[in-house]
Amino acid sequence: MKFYLFFAFFFLSIAVFAQDPSLGLTRRDTTKTGLTNPPLVAPKAKHEQYKIYTLERDTTYVDTSLTIQSEYKYNYLRKDIFGLQQFSNEGQTYNKLFFGLNQYNPYPDFGFRSKQFGYLQLEDIKYYSVATPLTELYFKTVMEQGQSVDALISANTSERFNFSIAYRGLRSIGKYINQLSSIGNFRFTTSYFTADKRYFINAHFTGQDILNGENGGIVSLDDFESDDQDFKNRARLQVFLDNAKSFLRGKRFFIDHNFRVNSKESSNNLYINHQFNLENKFFEFNQVTIAKTIDNVLFNRFGNSYVVSNINDQTRYQRLYNKLGATYENKTLGQFQFFVEDFKYVYKYDKVLILEDGIIPNQLSERINALGGQYQYQKNNWKGKFLLTKAISNQTFSTIDAIVNYKLNDKNNFSFQYQNISRIPNHNFILHQSSYENYNWKNNFDNEKINKIEVIANTQWLNASAEFTTLNDYLYFSDDDATYNVQLVSPKQYQNTINYLSFKVSKEFKYKKFALDNTILYQNVSQEDNILNVPQIVSRNTLYFTDYFFKKALFLQTGVTLNYFTKYSMDDYNPVLGEFFTQNDTKQGNFPMLDFFVNARIRQTRIFVKAEHFNSGFTGSNFYSAPNTPYRDFMVRFGLVWNFFQ
Q1: What CA–CA distance (Å, rounded) separates 198 from 258?
Q2: Which of 172, 179, 176 is nearest to 232 (CA)?
Q3: How many Cα atoms sit within 13 Å of 305 on the Cβ side?
């Protein structure tokens, strides 16, 4: 933390004293005042001069407006979370209601996926180009004893060099026993290009840690669902784990740069491209007391263990990725890129386990090399990208990814995507060590095979998308024990085919100062066994009112949002693995979640006030985010997003 604070102070100093006058900054005439260090005055700049772009060069602009999308994105993840069911405390995990949110990468990942919703991945990092220093402050109250903040500053020291520094922090103790969230996400980005525009570079560093108290859910659903006022104080409900916690930590160094070989840009250009990614991750599950007494019966939630107390399972991971390629660009034909990829990983534990039924090694280590090609085309209203990769090492994979976009006009655009991916299993499916006897394994699973077709239409009448996905050799976790109080979860591979189909439609109706925004999702799964479980219907409906007040100095937005999903066998959550797992014993859903909000915008400041789940007191206590894990009760929260243009 001291390093991050020093880092922030150093670069903030650069932002204040090194802003380039070529960006439109001028100094006040101070000959009469005698000031030796006159302050900078920033004239008003156009919003197009405050750019935000991704690694894929998708560009947006700093937006200080207040729309219904601003309301949807005002949360800890800072994005629309339709299709995700939040856990009770801020900063905990999310249960996926919408299977289409999954993104596929052929390379193996660390695993422990349920702990990484708040972990900033490559695609989450934004780069900036700003006319004057930009600051954004996010603040929101939490459930109990804490706050959620996200602060960013970005500055260009010249037209060609930008840096940004940001920190997201969260602390919330929660309403239930042992539910603490304590999270920090530090990120630093920089961008630069030469005067002749031959060389471009984007780079970033992230340092992240996510600490969660793990209570394993409540023991008695009857107590939670009863009208007993004693249990309305949720801290009186007994939980499965009183002193367990999980901790995810990671650091990443990333560079993406390219160099144009020919000295001047022409209709034919040749580029050399390189990406570098070095990332370290660490996951720990810690539990002080193992045995638990419920109804005068002593039991272990996760089965027998090799120790009598102080479970301390630690998993370490390092990945090194390099991608080197050459791109030929023709202004008429498009871009042709050929590349090689080198991916090396080490996934390890401290020791080798010698058990009665075999030896559990202490690490996985492999080097994967791949060859690939990519073609990009953009002309008039058409834009397309076609990608092919194939691994040429012992661990093999393949990827076909084609996406075509057609923009009819500013109000109507369409896209089509096809993916065929053979992906290597995540590491924790293959190897896991624990002090719990049933959580040790070394497996040899086949690659997962994914075929996906997706069509998206964003039109002036409605927004719609359809997805059809076929899964073969699908990997998942499930419980091996039918006992209610015990979770013995292990990985499995489904040998049959799973077919998944979804339709999502969004439409907003407006009448004068009122609007009704609707999003409805339909999902269907065809499978011989209940492996992939999703709700058939997920919906979000918002009725709201907007108007200006005080001579248009204040813009007000107020309304009610209804979130709903049909009853289904929700995936359960296992804190030892940091994963959700398939279960078919209980079903949750079919309960309304109503939020009332009042939002306002004053210049560049957006103020948010929300009464979350205000119907919980009169529609019944049958709301869950996972089996044994309740959704949050009624509470009022508030905060703001404030932009400064210096």
Answers
A1: 8
A2: 176
A3: 22
In DSSP notation, 86-126 reads E-SSTTS-EEES-GGG----SS-----GGG-TTS--GGG--
Distance CA 617, CA 634 (A): 7
92 neighbors 173 (Cβ within 8 angstroms): no
Residues 506, 484 contacting (CB under 8 angstroms): no
Q: Which residues pair with 477 in a beta bridge?
A: 491
**CA distances, 272 to each of 201, 324, 325, 391 (Å):** 12, 8, 6, 21
If phi > 0 it is left, if psi is from -120 to 50 it is alpha, else beta; for residue 313 that is: beta
- What are the backbone angles phi and psi of residue 323, rounded to the nearest 5°? -130, 120
As beta bridge partners, residue 39 has none
The pLDDT, as a whole number, for residue 586 is 93
Encoding tokens for residue 577?
Answer: 């693995």
Full-model pTM: 0.90
**Is residue 3 scored above 70 in pLDDT?**
no
Query: What distances in angstroms separate CA 332 from CA 266, 378, 380, one per listed residue?
Result: 12, 9, 11
Cα–Cα distance, 556 to 546 (Å, whole number): 5
Q: Which residues pair with 111 in a beta bridge?
A: none
How far, CA to CA in Å, does 257 sit from each of 319, 461, 558, 626? 19, 41, 45, 43
Q: Among 581, 587, 578, 610, which residue's Cα sits nearest to residue 93?
A: 578
- 101 vs 104: CA distance, rounded Å: 10
pLDDT tens for 352-401 read 999 888 899 999 999 999 999 999 999 889 999 999 999 999 999 999 99
CA distance 570 to 566: 11
Distance CA 397, CA 388 (A): 11
How far is 393 from 395, CA to CA, in rounded Å? 5
